[in-house]
Amino acid sequence: GDSVTQMEGPVTLSEEAFLTINCTYTATGYPSLFWYVQYPGEGLQLLLKATKADDKGSNKGFEATYRKETTSFHLEKGSVQVSDSAVYFCALMDIKAAGNKLTFGGGTRVLVKP
Amino acid sequence: DGGITQSPKYLFRKEGQNVTLSCEQNLNHDAMYWYRQDPGQGLRLIYYSQIVNDFQKGDIAEGYSVSREKKESFPLTVTSAQKNPTAFYLCASSILEGSAFFGQGTRLTVV
């Protein structure tokens, strides 16, 4: 079945540092890929998405590129802020193989220190 | 404003009781989901529904039940068969082939 693997956290950074969170996936079809963010005590919010190979999703300074050859969707931000401290989830939706089933990775906690 | 609403925010259950968590959306989304999140853990899919009157088991459906009688509503019942129900429960909805919108969650505690 479909699965998503993320690097384990926590990731601790200083403000203005470069952030990378690795995400790889396994899917039988051609999934859409997502990054979601969760702030303490809240639900998840969509951060960005990509629906086909080589697409780049971007939002709020975050970027991720859909790499079919390496089955990856790594999240990057060039200069993090304290407000970026949260848990980040990579996810996939493989419509043809599994309908609307949305599968998440285990999440990566990011802590940005001033 | 369109959105997805979960209630209550906090819920306490006694051993052996069934409880129902509410999830309502006014986004006109076809698909709805229930996830369970344990402290420091990722999201595990309990049930999902792609259309009214139809739903599928997710990865951890045992001890839970759902219904989808209306497009807007997807309530989750945590039954007494669920041996470890204390967790944070998240409901979400999406258009078909689209990204999901999440509610604020319900924190269930067994007392």
Describe the structure.
The complex is a heterodimer of chains A (114) and B (111). Chain A is mainly beta and 114 residues long. Chain A is 4% helix and 50% strand. Chain A has 1 helix and 12 strands, in the order E-E-E-E-E-E-E-E-E-E-H-E-E. In chain A, strands 2, 5, 6, 10, 11 and 12 form a 6-stranded mixed beta sheet that branches. Chain A is globular and about 45 Å long. With 111 residues, chain B is mainly beta. Chain B is built from no helices and 11 strands. In chain B, strands 2, 4, 5, 6, 9, 10 and 11 form a 7-stranded mixed beta sheet that branches. A 4-stranded antiparallel beta sheet of chain B has the order 1-3-8-7, with no helix packed on it. In chain B, strand 9 (87-94) and strand 10 (100-102) form a beta hairpin. The termini of chain B are far apart. Classes of the chains: A mainly beta (114), B mainly beta (111). Chains A and B meet through strand 5, strand 6 and strand 11 of A and strand 4, strand 5, strand 9 and strand 10 of B.
Quote the distance from N terminus to C terminus of chain A.
41 Å
Helix and strand composition category of chain A: mainly beta
Uncertain ranges of chain A: none
Question: What is the number of E strands of chain A?
Answer: 12
Helicity of chain B, as a percent range: under 10%
Oligomeric nature of the chains: heterodimer
Strand content of chain A: over 45%
**Biggest sheet of chain A, open or closed, and with what strands and sense?**
6 strands, mixed
Mean pLDDT of chain A: 92
Mean pLDDT of chain B: 92
Specify the number of helices of chain B. 0
Instruction: Look at the helices and sheets of chain B and give the structural class.
Output: mainly beta
As residue ranges, the low-confidence spans of chain B are none
The count of DSSP E runs of length 2 or more, i.e. the number of strands of chain B, is: 11
Order of helices and strands of chain B: EEEEEEEEEEE
